[in-house]
Design brief:
The chain is mainly beta and 523 residues long. The protein has a domain of 133 residues: Methylamine Dehydrogenase, Chain H. It has 5 helices and 34 strands. Strands 10, 11, 12, 13 and 14 form a 5-stranded antiparallel sheet that branches. Strands 5-33-32-31 form a 4-stranded antiparallel sheet, with no helix packed on it. Strands 6-7-8-9 form a 4-stranded antiparallel sheet, with no helix packed on it. A hairpin with a 5-residue loop joins strand 11 and strand 12. It is globular, with a radius of gyration of 24 Å.
């Protein structure tokens, strides 16, 4: 079933017929892969455990076999605790909360877990014992009447304070864990949208400025920005530091790059391309990264390419590309297990789904059991430790899952008589295009009654007797019964429809507004 939007493209000035290619529908394929609406395929490498709606980040317990996932999508926001022993992954506890946003961190001893409280302007501190979470303490960041919205969280080395980024407040805050003291707040500039936080051993912290192309170096005791380092690429998100503290890696999600930064100068030494092809346009969304415990490997989660890029760090400032690892759909977080395995949260799980029991405006008070915003269940994927032999098997699969190719200047398959130019700059009989979007209507709801056509008549709300002009236009020009938009709601759907891409900011923020924002900070 086509979701979200109906698109009509009327190409005027051309009457040339072109050869029809074989239909290639989304869904399971004979080779075991799953084709998504955007023509990418999923062929996940690891074993999956279902988590919930949009898991966004992972935290490993510093001393035990536990890993914690935070999911904060359209549905229930909760922390899920999994126990990983050998080849077994078991969910041992899960705790719901009113709202969360990205921030998740253990203290050094693993006795407390800290979770962002979203627009309620708190950080929740949960006692953690043998995989179970106790009653939380709410650490106030700012008054609820203000807008801060804690995002990334990091413990300071003294173990008495934490730092959190205020995503919607364009600020950061230092919070006393003992309570009784007001949090200190530092303004980081309009439009900065602070996201990730990394605490250093010298009393300073790094804050990635999601809305900019930079990272702020902040002196916590003086509460001032010492320097702002330009990454050269948009949406700096997660950061990782080498053990010796000399080199910083910054995932720049609205690009194809990870910036490699000299910590002594703040200068970018190199931009590390994480896309399948060096000349690929923005769109792989490298939003999360992790270093192996021995510091020899760097893994980068390419959310929109559904894979991990792996690099060798024999020379950390000149990493060597080792290969790619296919994952589930939209990997949001990657971490190395101490034994070398890779842990990944896949924000949208392992397959798209139809929603025949979605919203029906013609039936009043009917419960909606399959609203698109909460339809996909994310997963925790456990992948064997990468070896040269395994990467030799996994990397070709990652390329096979992609509809992209090395030559972006020409169309790979171009049927004879097709009016669409095969190469940039070629001539075409097309002179004008009219692009019409029918928001919040699926193909089936309007054209499900058309024959021929790949539609579902039972879902048709506006048949031909109600929409004769729409049907006439579809018959005269193009029906587009297999035109898909990789969007779930209007917020990301418009971006996919108009630009063929929705940023990591949109993907992570829209669910908080659509699920109902109690304090109206997410719209």
């Amino acid at each position: 079933m086509q979701r979200l939007m109906l698109s009509l493209v009327l190409c005027l000035g051309s009457s040339a017929a072109y050869a029809q290619t074989a239909a290639n529908f989304p869904g399971p394929k004979p080779d075991g892969s799953v084709q998504l609406p955007n023509q990418w395929r999923l062929m996940p490498t690891g074993k999956h455990t279902t988590l919930g709606d949009l898991p966004v980040t992972l935290a490993l317990h510093p001393k035990g076999p536990y890993v914690v996932a935070l999911h904060c999508g359209y549905g229930t926001h909760e922390v899920v605790v999994a126990k990983i022993e050998g080849d077994t992954t078991q969910i041992v506890s899960r705790v719901a909360m009113p709202q969360a946003f990205h921030g998740l961190s253990f203290d050094a001893a693993g006795e407390n877990l800290f979770v962002s409280g979203g627009e309620f302007e708190v950080v929740r501190s949960y006692p953690f014992t043998n995989g179970q979470l106790g009653k939380p303490t709410e650490l106030k960041v700012v008054d609820k009447a203000k807008t801060f919205v804690p995002a990334g969280i990091a413990m300071l080395p003294d173990g008495k304070r934490l730092v959190t980024a205020g995503m919607l407040g364009n600020a950061m805050a230092v919070v006393d864990l003992a309570g009784g003291k007001s949090a200190r707040v530092l303004d980081l500039g309009e439009g900065s949208y602070p996201f990730g936080v990394l605490a250093l051993n010298n009393g300073k912290v790094l804050v990635s400025l999601w809305g900019k192309t930079s990272v702020a170096l902040v002196d916590v005791d003086a509460m001032k920005v010492e320097a702002t380092w330009d990454m050269g690429h948009a949406h700096p998100a997660e950061m990782a530091l080498t053990k010796d503290g000399s080199t910083l890696f910054v995932a720049c999600a609205n690009s194809t790059m990870v910036a490699i930064v000299d910590m002594a100068t703040g200068k970018v030494l190199k931009s590390l391309n994480c896309a399948l092809y060096p000349k690929a346009p923005n769109g792989n969304t490298p939003g999360s990264l992790a270093l192996s415990s021995d510091g020899k490997l760097l893994a980068v989660a390419n959310a929109d390419a559904n894979n991990l890029a792996l690099f060798g760090l024999e020379q950390p400032r000149d990493p060597k590309a080792l290969g790619f690892i296919p994952t589930g759909w939209y990997p949001t977080s990657v971490r190395f297990h101490p034994d070398g395995r890779l842990l990944v949260t896949n924000g949208k799980g392992v397959s798209s789904r139809a929603n025949p029991q979605g919203p029906n405006p013609l039936v009043k008070n009917q419960p909606v059991r399959q609203y698109i915003g909460g339809l996909f269940q994310g997963t925790l994927e456990v992948i064997d430790a990468p070896t040269p032999e395994r990467l030799a098997e996994w990397t070709p699969k990652a390329y096979a899952c992609s509809p992209l190719r090395a030559d972006f200047g020409s169309i790979q398959s171009h049927p004879k008589g097709n009016p669409i130019p095969a190469r940039v700059g070629d001539t075409s009989p097309i002179r004008h295009c009219i692009y019409i979007i029918k928001e919040n209507r699926t193909y089936d709801q309007v054209f499900g009654d058309m024959v021929p056509g790949n539609g579902e008549k039972s879902l048709c709300l506006f048949p031909e007797k109600i929409t004769p002009n729409h049907h006439a236009l579809a018959r005269e020009y193009v029906q587009l019964d297999n035109c898909y938009v990789d969007g779930e709601v209007s917020a990301d759907g418009h971006e996919w429809s108009m630009g063929a891409y929705a940023t990591d900011f949109v993907e992570k923020v829209w669910p908080l507004g659509y699920r109902g924002s109690p304090l109206k900070k997410f719209g």
